[in-house]
Each structure stands twice: as structure tokens, then as C-alpha cells.
Design brief:
This protein has 145 residues and is mainly α. It has six helices and two strands. It has a two-stranded antiparallel sheet. The radius of gyration is 17 Å and the shape is globular. The mean pLDDT is 84.
Length: 145
């Protein structure tokens, strides 16, 4: 549940606060407005949001859970999202409406996917690897019950 709420929060922060941080506007001599995105600032925002969610989950939300509980909880989120990503990648006529509807719910792992692609990983590999992001919370759990 934490990952879904964190994804919604990072989605809305990216949509509303993101343009204030990484979109630049310039007025040309002829009066036209040129809008561009700074890729470095965009990457820094994605890294900051990803680390913020990871730290909040690790130090607050999952601190009282055991590692096994966190892994089981992460698997419940990973399996359906991995199935959706695989369908998006390899089903030719996957409905765009479904992808747009679900995008706020896996925005947090999507930022990891974007970062992996900026490190020259191909899209399918980055999308599949990023779905396992909830497992990053496992080392922060308690060792035993």
C-alpha cells in the first residue's frame, strides 16, 4: 500500500511541482516563447523523489515489519505490475487508456526505469528491472519476528 501511495504522491509532485523545477521558458526577440526541459534537472528530480520514497519507507513505514513480511508485501505489488509491463511491451494492441490510467500507480518505479534508461539500458530491460524496486525495502526490515 505504501508503494502505491508513494507512487501517487510522486506522480502529482512530478506533474505539478516538476515543471517549476526543470522546465525553462525563454522569450525570443520576435516575442515567441520557447519552452524546453532541462534533462539534468529532470534527472535530479527523479532521483530525489525515488530516494525520498525509499528513505520514508525504510525509516518509517517498514521499520516494524520483518524482512519476510516486506518481501511478501512487495511480491503482491510486483506480480501484477510486472504482468502489466510485460503486456505493454509485447502485446501490440495494448490499450493506451489502460496505460494512462495506471501510470500514477507505478510512477515511483517508473522513475527508476527512466534513470536506468539514461544509463543506456534498453527500454524492455529497464522497465522489467524497475518493477522489482519494492524489494529495495527488504534490507531495512527487522531480521526476525
Amino acid at each position: 500500500m505504501f508503494c502505491l501511495l508513494a507512487s501517487l504522491l510522486s506522480y502529482w509532485l512530478t506533474v505539478f511541482a516538476g515543471p517549476l523545477f526543470y522546465v525553462s521558458r525563454a522569450v525570443n526577440v520576435d516575442g515567441s516563447i520557447e519552452v524546453s526541459v532541462d534533462p539534468l534537472r529532470s534527472t535530479l528530480l527523479q532521483i530525489a523523489l525515488f530516494l525520498l520514497v525509499l528513505l520514508l519507507g525504510a525509516l518509517w513505514a517498514f521499520r516494524s515489519m520483518t524482512r519476510r513480511e516486506i518481501a511478501c508485501s512487495a511480491a503482491l505489488l510486483i506480480l501484477p505490475m510486472l504482468a502489466i509491463v510485460l503486456a505493454q511491451l509485447w502485446v501490440p494492441s495494448f490499450p493506451l487508456k489502460v496505460s494512462v490510467f495506471l501510470s500514477p500507480f507505478y510512477n515511483w518505479s517508473g522513475s527508476l526505469s527512466s534513470l536506468l534508461m539514461q544509463c543506456s539500458l534498453p527500454l524492455p530491460a529497464a522497465a522489467i528491472i524497475s518493477q522489482f524496486a519494492p524489494l529495495l525495502f527488504v534490507p531495512f526490515g527487522r531480521r526476525q519476528a
